[in-house]
Amino acid sequence: MGLYDEALKFKKLAENAMRKGDIEAAKRYLQMAISRLETLEEMSEDPTLKKIWEQGRRNLMMLLEGLESGAIRIPKRTAEAKAPRRVAGAPRVKMIEHVPRRTAIKEIPEECQADFLYTSIPEITFNDVAGLDDVKRELREGIEWQIKYPEILRQLGLRPIKGILLYGPPGTGKTYVVKAAAGEFGVPLIIVDPATLMSKWLGESEKMVAKIFSCARRLSPSIVFIDEVDKVFPRQVSGSEAPKRIEAQLLQELDGIRSGEGFIVIFATNEPWNLNPALIRAKRVDKVIYVPPPDDEMRKKLFELYLRGVNLADDVNLDELVRRTRPNSEGFYSAAAIALICNEAKKNVLRYYQKTGQLRPIRMEDLLEAIERTRRDIPINLVEKYDEWKKQYFIS
Fold first, then answer.
1. In terms of pTM, does the model score above 0.90?
2. In 3-state terms, the chain is what percent helix, strand and coil (to 5)?
3. What would be the CATH architecture of the domain defined by 102-290?
């Protein structure tokens, strides 16, 4: 039996002891599980795995400290506290032609009440996203068609999409556009925290992955969003069984999505070359969408967005700002960098107010100075690397 399995065994024994009220036995088993984790952490040369073992050890240490201090109380769950389940044989609710916009989820199902999930219906829509018109069109076709026209898709013999992968440089708005898509179509967005999910590796990871998809079915139509999927589903995995079990469960759930279930999984990554190719396969991920650095039109819209409602001097020229932020040999400005430029210009106004007590408008010199101070955060060679990856997978 390996160290991972030993740690898992002792954790389960500790849980059983806690259920029986034998706190002393629970503490002994937790200490044995922690010692196995410490050994795994010391032996591991893989930084990702080292972090997983460390987080798992910390989780068990917190549990042990809670038992020793008497701070932990384990409430008994009653039948009344459980979320209602669908009666076997009862018909599923069919998706209708028009999905009314919802502003809140009336009741969060039990499956969705996990510390690695955040579930809501975002208030933003595509109108709040500057540019990215091609990305929004692809998301509309991938999501809205399934929600609004399932019967027509079946009549035309078009298979519903299960998964979408968004890839591109950091700070280009991948997460924001997914939130806007959920808000646009008025459906719940289930955001998965990969770091917390990975930290629950100790016998819980498979259950956690299954809970994600169970939550999506209960809230259908819905969107599941997993950012930094390369951390959850890496190209290379060390000899440990824990990350492999997460991968296996994730693939099993994706392969098990049936046509017409009414939810879609959207993945995002800044490093697609570190992603396991097994995920990028038809019937798992059907759309792969590049989210690029902002072009001239998008940067102008970004400046308009981030300077909206702010008093501007007459000399502020948005077209000149667009020209000054064009890519060069140093790289590109991301959407996040444009936001930073605008914020730095606003800080100049606040500094002036502190000195004079007068609130003046933002001047062109404030913005140009902010551009000079803000580095281009997307290197040219990084964009070239995305192009090479795109060619490798014959993505149009």
1. no
2. 55, 10, 35
3. 3-Layer(aba) Sandwich (3.40)
